[in-house]
């Protein structure tokens, strides 16, 4: 028996498994001949783009039925070691025991985590929204604030990082915190970024609309300044200013899973493995990288796929197809994703929807908010566990934005 082993049950890992199972089915290989195994700590997909919302513990979708329908073997565990010389991985199972599993083809889809620089006090006093457990911790903290007496620190939230996650978090917080503390609470939310502009990924066209929406949501913006220290009472900024705050949320940057460092191949500054067009890791036999662990060229113009679920879904589909094709002696397909959209939630101010690598606005306000709502509650959730429907979709059709006109960006 040959084995395709997928590390990670995020967007990339899920669609890699689906796509590999599809090709196995199309070429009449049985699950006894080609095993598709997926290893992850839990058999669910964390809906990561929604972790800035209330009740983050509900932002997950079970995968067990889908795995059973497609005859994908789920292994509960956390990978600790990848040994490419022996084509094996070692992991810790749910009982704490260590196990080793061999592979014929490996798909690394372990995702990314928020970048945590060595800012004094950040690990002790900062919060995050990039992982489920961090988002749950923040949500519990916000509710616990209601048991504290009113004060400037209690009612002030500092969000460090003016990218997409920081903006969506900051614009969600005013209403979220007032729902906890009361409508009359003197809530203050401050978005801090070291850059000269917020949302640098969007370009010049949507930015004025985003800036106005942030202000309309009651969020203050502080640019060209960073957080240099945290303590239990607030933050110190790089300009020497002190802000009293009981809640500091760090959203400044992402890094690929540390497992990428165990693959003997070049990586970029974000820790992503630099992959070939078919997502193979050059010079490493039988290993493919996808999602946030891969630095992949998305189109003929040389644009690089960003670390978003919009791209992780399609990257995963291509990686699964190509790993299975390589194992079955079939030609692989070059990954391509020429369409890029941004749909950014702006809290009480609605949202924006823009298209293109130099994004151009197409929707704003409540119209864009409705699009974002559909993305967050329909588009990015796993497909129904129906084998016939899943196997009818080729990798290049997964989130084909040129046809659908919609996508997830967060």
Brief write-up:
The protein has 410 residues and is of the alpha/beta class.
3D structure, described in words:
This protein is α/β, with parallel strands linked by helices. It folds into 2 domains: 2-113 and 254-338, FAD/NAD(P)-binding domain; 116-250, FAD/NAD(P)-binding domain (3-Layer(bba) Sandwich). It contains 10 helices and 25 strands. The protein has helices at residues 11-26, 64-70, 122-125, 132-144, 164-181, 207-216, 309-328, 365-379, 387-391, 401-404; strands spanning 2-7, 34-40, 44-46, 60-62, 73-76, 78-83, 88-92, 98-102, 105-108, 112-114, 126-127, 156-160, 188-192, 219-222, 227-231, 234-237, 242-244, 247-250, 254-256, 273-274, 287-289, 294-295, 341-345, 351-355, 360-364. The strands form 8 sheets. The chain has a 5-stranded parallel beta sheet. A hairpin with a 5-residue loop joins strand 7 (88-92) and strand 8. Helix 1 (11-26) packs parallel to helix 7 (309-328).
């Amino acid at each position: 028996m040959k084995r395709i082993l997928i590390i990670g049950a995020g967007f990339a890992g899920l669609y890699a498994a689906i796509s590999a199972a599809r090709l196995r089915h199309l070429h009449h290989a049985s699950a006894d001949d080609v095993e598709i195994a997926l290893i992850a700590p839990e058999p669910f997909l964390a809906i990561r783009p929604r972790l800035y919302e209330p009740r983050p513990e509900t932002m997950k979708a079970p995968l067990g039925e889908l795995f059973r329908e497609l005859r994908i073997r789920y292994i509960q565990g956390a990978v600790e070691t990848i040994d490419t010389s022996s084509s094996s991985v070692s992991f810790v199972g749910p009982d704490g025991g260590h196990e080793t599993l061999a592979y014929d083809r490996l798909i690394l889809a372990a995702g990314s985590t928020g970048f945590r620089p060595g800012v004094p006090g950040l690990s002790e006093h900062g919060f995050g929204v990039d992982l489920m457990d961090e988002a749950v911790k923040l949500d519990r903290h916000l509710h616990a604030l209601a048991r504290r007496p009113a004060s400037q620190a209690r009612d002030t939230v500092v969000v460090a990082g003016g990218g997409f996650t920081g903006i969506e978090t900051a614009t969600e917080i005013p209403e979220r915190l007032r729902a906890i503390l009361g409508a009359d609470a003197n809530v203050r939310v401050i978005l801090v970024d070291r850059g000269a502009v917020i949302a640098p990924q969007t370009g010049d066209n949507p930015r004025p609309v985003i800036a106005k929406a942030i202000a309309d949501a009651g969020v203050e913006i502080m640019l060209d300044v960073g957080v240099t220290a945290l303590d239990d009472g607030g933050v110190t900024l790089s300009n020497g200013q002190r802000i009293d705050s009981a809640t500091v949320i760090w959203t400044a940057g992402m890094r690929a899973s540390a497992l990428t460092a165990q693959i003997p191949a070049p990586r970029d500054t974000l820790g992503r493995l630099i992959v070939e067009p078919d997502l193979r890791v050059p010079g490493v036999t039988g290993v493919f990288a996808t999602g946030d662990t891969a630095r992949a060229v998305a189109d003929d113009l040389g644009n690089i796929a960003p670390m978003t679920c919009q791209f992780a879904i399609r990257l995963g589909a291509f990686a699964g197809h190509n790993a299975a094709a390589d194992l079955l002696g079939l030609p692989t397909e070059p990954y391509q994703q020429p369409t890029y959209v941004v749909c950014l939630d702006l809290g009480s101010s609605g949202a924006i929807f823009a298209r293109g690598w130099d994004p151009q606005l197409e929707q704003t306000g409540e119209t864009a908010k409705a699009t974002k709502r559909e993305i967050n509650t329909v588009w990015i959730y796993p497909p129904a566990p129906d084998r016939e429907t899943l196997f009818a979709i080729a990798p290049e059709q997964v989130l084909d934005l040129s046809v659908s006109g919609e996508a997830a960006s967060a």
